[in-house]
Amino acid sequence: MTEPYYSSAGVTLYHGDALTVLPEIASAGCMILDPPYHMSPSTFRGIDDGAASSIATPVRLLTETFREAYRILPNGGAAFIFCDWRRGPDTTYLATLSGLRITTCVAWTRNRSGTGGMFRGAWDPIYVASKGVPSIRDKAAIPNVINADHPTDKDHPYEKPGRVWDHLLSRIPHTRVVDAFAGSGTSATSALRNGHEWVGIEADERHCETIALRMSQDTLDLGELPA
Ligand SMILES: C[S@@+](CC[C@H](N)C(=O)[O-])C[C@H]1O[C@@H](n2cnc3c(N)ncnc32)[C@H](O)[C@@H]1O
Known about the structure:
By secondary structure, the chain is an alpha/beta fold. The chain has one domain (6-222): Rossmann fold (3-Layer(aba) Sandwich). The chain is globular, with a radius of gyration of 17 Å. Helix content is 27%, strand content 22%. The protein starts with 5 loop residues before the first strand and ends in a 5-residue tail after the last helix. Strand 1 (6-8) and strand 2 (11-15) form a beta hairpin. The protein is built from 6 helices and 11 strands. The chain has a 9-stranded mixed β-sheet, with helices on both faces. The chain has a two-stranded antiparallel ribbon with strand order 4-5. It has helices at 18-21, 59-72, 88-97, 162-169, 186-193, 205-222; strands at residues 6-8, 11-15, 30-33, 43-44, 47-48, 78-82, 101-109, 123-130, 145-147, 176-179, 197-202. S-adenosylmethionine is lined by residues 17-19, 34, 36, 156, 158-160, 181, 183-184, 186, 201-204, 207.
């Protein structure tokens, strides 16, 4: 069994490969999946074919991760899959093959746009996959759009803002949330704020250090954490 790199009330962080650690996790009501996608253009004999095809999708990583997500989730459990529009067809296809149902898609929009030629990117899809019909916390009418700019003082190049995590994690009943590609670990703070337990996995030890530092600070700031 992999020993935790860090743990405190409601938080457990593993330093390692998600494909090694996930099989050791028995169950969790929610999974966060923000894997490393490779954004280089697809090529056919060295020529950019301009298509969203499978060449830049980490097929094995996603296939095995989705298979584990399906095993770990109970009926009604949800997986939030962060994506890029180019990887959408492959990602949703692979998730569906593992048995997950693509229930809905949340658009994460930004006021500041990124790079691009004809149009500059200002949104990303977050697919909500579930095992059967997803369990929700209440019947509040929450839109499937969240607007939040990238954090300006980032600890990680792909760090997601707290408002995005809150939008997602406030919709599910209190549970254990597993973030398989934790990065900066900002999802942990939101998980605790929304009454969940958090388990993170991160392959890069430098990011594990950042998470552990942040969580020691947050634990001090939050005081008593939810049971
Ligand atoms: C897109 S980033 C995640 C960003 C994160 N959601 C955040 O808000 O900071 C992907 C992360 O996955 C980590 N990673 C890559 N391959 C991994 C693997 N096989 N197992 C666990 N973590 C991995 C990378 O080091 C990187 O920090």
